[in-house]
Specification:
By secondary structure, the chain is α+β, with helices and mostly antiparallel strands. It contains 3 helices and 11 strands. It starts with a helix and ends in a 6-residue tail after the last strand.
Amino acid sequence: MKKFYHLFLVAIILCISGCSIVNSVKSAYELTKCKFDYNRISDVSIANVKVSEGLTVSNIANLSKFLLSDFSSLPIDMIVHLDVTNPSEKTASIHGCDYTINIDGLDIAEGNLNSPFEVEAGKTGIMSLRVQTDLKSVITADNRSKIVTMVKNLSGISSDKSKIDLNLKPYFKSNNRVVSSISIPVYFEYNGKQSK
């Protein structure tokens, strides 16, 4: 009788964890049906100059002085906000998301969203991704002018826009294992002068 009881408990635990896995997979699948669009970029800091506070004379002078120097390091910090629209009749959710960001053809950063994200059926949610990097690993003599142009575009000094490619890799967790789903590409152009 005791042996039967243990087998019964194991069966219930497997059933519950199996249901949890199935629900996680279904919710993650719903996210693949969502539409991802650019919302805005906020809190932009380039070379420790907070350009999102506006193009002051001081900001332009500090950035120009930096760009004219023989810089070997270029810290960039910003938050990319995406609209995630769920057209489905079910909630879409994930446990987290890894991402890479490419600006003007340069792979500048990898990052992750280490918190759950969900969008209810028929609603739009905002996914916010923090990008913190130092471009010292990609600065070369050959691409220096490209990086200067990118900084001018991101700060709004230039009227041109930078092309930004995000590659999102949402994931869900099951029994302490991380399971990745498909990659979701998001493309948009950005200039520091634009606002939503």
